[in-house]
Amino acid sequence: MADTLKGELANAENIQKAFEKQISELRREIAKINRSIAERGGEMLDEAKLVAGDAYQTASTRAARAARQLRTQAHSVSEVAKEHPRTTTALLGMVGVLGFLLGIAVARAANQSERRWH
């Protein structure tokens, strides 16, 4: 009976050592995976920075180009207005009158639709 107890004890110790060895191997694997994830995260961050920098540069270039075109067109319009002040005044006056008439028409249409529903 003592022999069987010693055999079982030795077997339990062998099982415990095997488990400890497996746990140690798993810890090394987890550490390896963590390092790999950290490296990949750094690479992804660098890549995201590059993409964001490129997008910012493209947007900045387009905005500058649009601002230049807008400035050029505004300058052209102001030059035409300076060359033809009477025409400009008449045109702006007509736009004002048309806006006023459109406002009256919208107000009347809104007023009529309210009457229909009462």
Please provide a brief summary of the model:
With 118 residues, this protein is mainly alpha-helical. It has helices spanning 2-83, 85-116.
Largest sheet: none
Give the overall pLDDT as a whole number: 87
Query: Could you tell me the number of beta strands?
Result: 0
> Could you list the spans in which at least 5 consecutive residues all have pLDDT below 50?
none
Following the backbone from N to C, one meets helices and strands in this order, namely: HH
Compute the CA-based radius of gyration. Answer: 41 Å
Helix-and-strand structural type: mainly alpha
Count of helical stretches: 2
Straight-line distance between termini = 105 Å
Which term fits the overall shape? Answer: elongated
As a percent range, the share of strand residues is under 5%
Number of domains: 2
Instruction: State the share of residues found in helices, binned by percent.
Output: over 70%
